[in-house]
Amino acid sequence: MKLNFSYQFAKDFINEEEIKQIKPHVELANEILISKTGAGNDFLGWLSLPEDYDKEEFSRIKNGGYIWNLILIINLQRNFLEKKK
After folding, report:
1. Of 41, 42, 45, 64, which sits with the fewest C-beta atoms within 10 Å of its C-beta?
2. Based on the number of CB atoms within 10 Å of its own CB, is 46 exposed (0-12), middle (13-18) or buried (19 or more)?
3. How far apart, in Å, are the Cα atoms of 46 and each of 19, 36, 37, 57, 78?
4. C-alpha distances out from residue 40 to 32, 33, 34, 36, Å
5. What is d(CA 7, CA 5) in angstroms, rounded to the nearest whole number?
6. Which residues contact residue 27 at a Cβ distance below 8 angstroms, ignoring those fewer than 6 apart?
């Protein structure tokens, strides 16, 4: 995984020399994360979440959320109509 850093928003409080000094440390930390060789490496499931997740569970949650939103809208409309009477 390639690591990108945009310096443009950090220029006001970090100078270019500091970026050059910390770069090797950031690259090493990235490599340790990607290779999953550091301490706590059994807690790195979040690294693959964008690609590797339970798609069936996500679909159930997503569809369930739609139903709850629909129920909420119906109840709000019913309450509004009852108050108009």
Report:
1. 42
2. exposed
3. 27, 12, 15, 16, 42
4. 11, 10, 13, 9
5. 6
6. 3
Length of the chain: 85
**Contact between 36 and 45 (Cβ < 8 Å):** no
Given a contact cutoff of 8 angstroms between Cβ atoms, the answer to whether 3 and 26 are in contact is: yes
Q: What is the pLDDT of residues 11-61, one digit of tens each?
A: 888 888 998 999 999 999 999 998 999 999 888 888 887 788 888 877 877
Question: DSSP per residue over 18-29, as a string?
Answer: HHHHHHHHHHHH
Which phi and psi angles does 36 have, rounded to 5°?
55, 45
- Dist. CA 80–CA 72, nearest whole Å: 12
Phi, psi dihedrals of residue 49, rounded to the nearest 5°: -55, -40
